[in-house]
Amino acid sequence: MKKSLVGAVLGVLLCGATAVPATALDSADPSATPRVQAVNFAGTVALSNCSGSVVRVPNSQPTDPALVMSNGHCLETGFPGPGQVVVDRPSTRTFSLLNAAGSKVATLRASKIAYGTMTDTDVSLYELTSTYQKIESSYGIKALELSAARPAQSTAISVVSGYWKRIYNCSIDGFAYRLKEGAWTWKDSVRYTSACQTIGGTSGSPVLDRATGKVVAVNNTGNEDGERCTDNNPCEVDQNGTVTVRQGINYAQQTYGIVPCVGIGNKIDLSAAGCTLPKP
Is the pTM of this model over 0.85? Predict the structure, then answer.
């Protein structure tokens, strides 16, 4: 997982990167299609140890309590164990809301952890004390929309880290049938092309389709040392059980499967038709 800030600081020192505007840090990807739109930091957030974003589904209403999405391994309660699902747990966690330039414009506060898991996927959803309408009217920031469609191979994407105020541009190289890291297994994970060299602290960053501006995945891990299926060294396992290790390659978890699970009032409904998120 890309949570460790010790690793993050080391990675920044090695790369010579600092939290400066994304224009100085973006990585060009020759495989990206020219039909892309500008991506900025508006709607992203910085957590104490990770990145995240204010998100909505297509049916979310302005008066709904807003949701912040990050990784399950970024929860303040610690890593959920294999098979563990956290729902409706009170939380007062705070998030630094960023504008397009990456400047902090507000502190948002959670009322609860609406959902969190590291089983099949690696995601957390916090319900905020503020509505989308309140955030937009007060700070001029709109939520990022979760795409209801599965992304395609070769899609041009941007991984937007609110923690580092850094944007990584690359493409979807393909998908891992199963991605195993230590005790956890994730399904149908997004594999980036090598241009997205994400580091610790980028965990939970939204992954945006650069043609639509919609969120298609949440950044979560990468193979750092070339080890096989260990912590911080995920391996890919195909349908036949063949294991592939790709050192230096990073991954995200798709988010289109979240959309059917968000019901009226932005409440997580794991029994809703089409919802396949793991249940407690």
Answer: yes
- What single letter denotes the amino acid at residue 233? N
Q: CA quadruple 233, 238, 244, 246: dihedral positive or negative?
A: negative
Q: Are 3 and 73 in contact (CB under 8 A)?
A: yes
CA–CA separation, 166 vs 178, rounded Å? 28
DSSP letter for 63, please. T
Please state the separation of Cα 197 from the chain's center in Å.
15
Residue 278 pLDDT: 98
Domains and CATH numbers, the chain: 5-38+154-256 (2.40.10.10), 44-146 (2.40.10)
Which helix (H) or strand (E) segment is 139 a member of? helix 132-139
| Whole-number Å distance between alpha carbons of 76 and 232 | 19
d(CA 131, CA 66): 5
